[in-house]
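To fix ideas, we reproduce below a protein record of this kind.
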Amino acid sequence: MIEIKITYKLQSDMKHKFMDTVESLGIPQATRNETGCLKYDFEVSADRDEVYLHELWENNECLESHKNQPHLKKLMALKEEFDIETVADIKNI
């Protein structure tokens, strides 16, 4: 399995707008429906301008397939639109 933890560092007071946009585009549900996706959960920080994403994938093939999905491309575009800095931690578990 592959575990990914991503921290999205947003501009001040933009985390809820970002998450509203992510949800309205159906990105989490579309990703959860992908083959091999075991977990795909966002969490909004209570005290920081950050959003956390915890992903768990069955294997590398499933993760590679995910990278080519249209909904992930929408998320990448949102990262640019919201000027988001990301930090990722990826582990094989």
Summary: The first strand starts at residue 2 and ends at 9.
